[in-house]
Amino acid sequence: MPEAQFGFPINGATTVGLVCKDGIVLASEKRISYGFSIMSKAGKKVFLINSRIGVAFAGLIADAQSILRRISAEVKLYELDYHTPMGVKSTAKLLSNMLYSQRFAPAFAETLVGGVDKDGQRLYILDQLGSLIEDKYAALGTGAAVAIGLLEQDYSGEMSLKEGKDLAVRSVRAAIARDIASGDGVDVVIISKDGAKEEFFPAK
Predict the structure, then answer these.
(1) Residues identified as active-site
(2) pTM exceeding the 0.85 threshold for the entire prediction
(3) Contact 6, 143 (CB under 8 A)
(4) N vs C: which end of the chain shows fewer Cβ within 10 Å?
C-alpha cells in the first residue's frame, strides 16, 4: 500500500474473502481515507463481475476501479468470443498477467478474485505486481492483521454460506474497531452455484 511522506497509509482498507462448502464470500468496509482525512463513508470495494465471479480490493480506489473496468471488459469479451463462461482461475490468471505487464508503473491495489465454476469454489489473492496465490481464506489492507486473527480462529472449510458471511462480517467489524482507516459498514458479496447477491451490514 502506498505511503505518504511521514509513513502513514494514504488509503486504508480491510478486505476479506473465504471459501465455504457451497460458495464464496467476499467482504470489505466502506471508508475511503487519504492520510488523516476521511474522504468518503460510502465507498465500494467489493464487486460482482458477473453472477459467478467477484472481486474485492484494498488500496487506491482509482487503481481498484481501473482494474475492475479492465477485467470486467476482458471477461465479457472472452464470453462473447467463445460462448462459454470464463473460469475463476482463468480470470485470476488474466488479471495477474495484466498487473505484471504494468509492473514498472504498478497499480497500488491488492485484489481478491473469488467465484464458483465447474471446478468448485475458488479464491485467489493478487498483489500489485500480479503474484497469484490460491487459498481458502484471506485478509488484505491496513486492518488485515486484526481480521486474519478471527479468520484463523473460526474458519472451517465445511462452513455454510451463512456461517461464512457471519464470519466475514465479524472479522471486518473487528478490524473497523481497531484500524482507523477502516469503517462505515460492511459490503458483502455472496456467490454460489445458484447465483450471486450483495448485502450491506452496519459497522456495529
Answers:
(1) 14
(2) yes
(3) no
(4) C
